[in-house]
UniProtKB/TrEMBL annotation:
Belongs to the protein prenyltransferase subunit alpha family. One of its GO terms (biological process) is prenylation. Keywords: Prenyltransferase, Repeat, Transferase. PANTHER family: GERANYLGERANYL TRANSFERASE TYPE-2 SUBUNIT ALPHA (PTHR11129:SF2), PROTEIN FARNESYLTRANSFERASE ALPHA SUBUNIT/RAB GERANYLGERANYL TRANSFERASE ALPHA SUBUNIT (PTHR11129). GO terms for molecular function: Rab geranylgeranyltransferase activity. It catalyses: geranylgeranyl diphosphate + L-cysteinyl-[protein] = S-geranylgeranyl-L-cysteinyl-[protein] + diphosphate. The keyword Transferase applies. The lineage of its organism: Eukaryota, Fungi, Dikarya, Basidiomycota, Pucciniomycotina. This is Geranylgeranyl transferase type-2 subunit alpha. Its EC number is 2.5.1.60. Signal peptide: none annotated.
C-alpha cells in the first residue's frame, strides 16, 4: 500500500488534475500496460480515475498512519490527508489538521493550492454535497482575504441569519474576478447534485460578500456590482429552466430577491421570468413555494401577485377549473383509483392534474389565511390536507352539511384571485 500511496501522491503533485472519478473494475479485468496503473490518467482532459478497491485500501492504510502524524513532516501529513479526503470528504480530523498546518500569513500560494484542492474534491459527484468541504472552502477564503471582525454593527433591517459571523464582509474584499470564478464553479456543483443545499448556501455567502462589502474594502465599482448581479440573475434563469424542481435553487432566488437593491421594475421583471419558468410545471411544489414567498414577504404587492398568477395560462386554467367546479370533484378525484390501478399515460396525466389542483388550492388558502381573507378551520384543513370528499365528513346534527360551509369559504377565496 505504501508504494500505491507514493504513486498516487506523485501523480497528484506532478499533473494538473482538475477532475477525479472513483470507479469499480471487474476482478478479472486485465491490467493495462500503463505506467500509471492501477490509476487512469487522462492528461488532455486533466482527469484522474481511481479504482474504488484501491482507494479503500489506501484509506485503511493511511488512517492507521495518520495516528502517528506527529512523526511525519507537515508536508507528508498534508499529502496523507489529501488522499483521505478523496475517499471521505467529511473526515474532520483530516480537515482540522490541514487548517492547523497551513499558515495564514504570507502564505498565499499554499492557500491558493488549498482552494484548488477543494475544487478538485468537490468535482467528485458524491462529494459535491459535503457540508464539511464547503465549510473548509469558506475557511480558505477567510484566510486569503481576512474576514472583518465579528463585532461589525449590523443594520436593524438585516435578517438574523445575515447578522451571523459567517456572512460578515472581508476586510480585503474578494476581487470581482474571483467572485465570478467562484460562482461559475459553484454552479457546476449545484448541477452535479440535485437540491444541493450546502452548495447553494455557499453561493449565498459569496454573493453576500459582493453585495455587502464595506466601503473601505470595495474592490469593484457599484456599476460592476450591478452588472455582476444582472449576470447572476441570467445564470439562475438558465439553471432553473433545466432544474425546475430544485427547491434549493428557488430558495436562493428568494434570498437574492430580498438582499439585492434593485429598482422595483427590475425586481418584478425577474420575478415574472422565474414564475414563467416554474409555472410550466404546476405539479411541482417549487412554483407554489415561490408564490407564497413573494406574496407573504411583500416583495410585490398583492395586486401584482394576482396579475402574475393569472398571467400564465396553465395556472390561470387551474384557478378557473377550481372556481367552476361546484363540488370540487376534480380536486377529490383520485387518479389511481379512476384508472383501475393501471399506470397508463392517461392515468399519469390525470395524476399530474390532480396534484396540480391540490397544490393550487392549498397555496391559495395558505395565502388567504395569512392575509385573513379566509379563516383556517379544522374542516378545511381536513379537506385540503387529507383530500377527503366533502360528503365523507359531516358537521354536528345542529349544523348544515359540511360541504356547503366548505364550498362557501373556498369559492369566496377563489374569487379574490381571479382577474375579471
Amino acid at each position: 500500500m505504501e508504494s500505491l500511496y507514493s504513486h498516487l501522491t506523485h501523480i497528484l503533485n506532478t499533473f494538473p488534475i482538475s477532475e477525479i472519478d472513483i470507479f469499480s473494475i471487474p476482478i478479472d479485468a486485465p491490467a493495462p500496460a500503463d505506467e500509471h496503473h492501477p490509476f487512469l490518467l487522462f492528461q488532455e482532459n486533466h482527469q484522474l480515475a481511481i479504482p474504488k478497491k484501491v482507494l479503500l485500501g489506501l484509506y485503511a492504510h493511511l488512517t492507521q498512519k495518520l495516528k502517528h502524524h506527529h512523526h511525519h513532516s507537515p508536508l507528508e501529513t498534508l499529502h496523507m490527508t489529501r488522499i483521505l479526503l478523496i475517499q471521505n470528504p467529511d473526515h474532520q480530523t483530516a480537515l482540522s489538521l490541514r487548517r492547523k498546518l497551513i499558515p495564514h500569513n504570507d502564505h498565499q500560494e499554499l492557500l491558493k493550492k488549498e482552494l484548488e484542492l477543494t475544487s478538485l474534491l468537490l468535482s467528485i459527484s458524491s462529494h459535491a454535497k459535503s457540508s464539511s468541504l464547503w465549510s473548509h472552502r469558506r475557511w480558505v477564503f477567510h484566510a486569503l482575504f481576512h474576514q472583518a471582525p465579528a463585532t461589525r454593527l449590523c443594520h436593524d433591517d438585516e435578517s438574523p441569519i445575515l447578522q451571523d459571523a459567517i456572512y460578515q464582509p472581508h476586510t480585503h474584499a474578494i476581487p470581482l474576478t474571483q467572485i465570478e470564478k467562484e460562482l461559475a464553479f459553484n454552479l457546476t456543483a449545484c448541477d452535479a447534485y440535485p437540491r444541493n443545499y450546502y452548495a447553494w448556501f455557499h453561493r449565498k455567502w459569496i454573493m453576500h460578500q459582493l453585495i455587502h462589502s464595506t466601503p473601505s474594502s470595495v474592490s469593484s465599482s457599484d456599476h460592476e456590482k450591478e452588472e455582476a448581479c444582472d449576470s447572476e440573475r441570467t445564470r439562475l434563469l438558465h439553471f432553473l429552466s433545466l432544474h425546475p424542481r430544485d427547491h434549493s435553487a428557488t430558495n436562493y432566488i428568494s434570498f437574492l430577491i430580498t438582499t439585492t437593491t434593485i429598482p422595483h421594475a427590475t425586481r418584478v421583471k425577474f420575478i415574472q421570468d422565474v414564475y414563467t419558468i416554474l409555472a410550466q410545471y404546476p405539479q411541482y411544489e417549487t412554483v407554489w413555494s415561490f408564490l407564497k414567498f413573494i406574496t407573504i414577504s411583500r416583495t410585490i404587492t398583492i395586486r401584482e401577485m394576482v396579475v402574475l398568477f393569472n398571467s400564465h395560462p396553465d395556472l390561470s386554467q387551474l384557478l378557473h377549473s377550481l372556481n367552476n367546479d361546484d363540488n370540487f370533484s376534480m380536486f377529490v378525484t383520485h387518479a389511481s383509483s379512476a384508472s383501475g390501478g393501471h399506470n397508463t399515460l392517461a392515468a399519469q396525466e390525470l395524476q399530474v392534474r390532480e396534484r396540480s389542483l391540490i397544490l393550487c388550492l392549498r397555496t391559495l388558502y395558505f395565502i388567504g389565511s395569512h392575509f385573513q381573507w379566509a379563516e383556517w378551520t379544522d374542516d378545511v384543513a381536513l379537506f385540503l390536507l387529507l383530500r377527503l370528499p366533502p360528503p365523507a365528513i359531516l358537521s354536528s346534527p345542529d349544523q348544515p352539511p359540511f360541504s356547503h360551509s366548505l364550498h362557501t369559504k373556498l369559492k369566496s377565496l377563489l374569487e379574490r384571485f381571479i382577474v375579471r
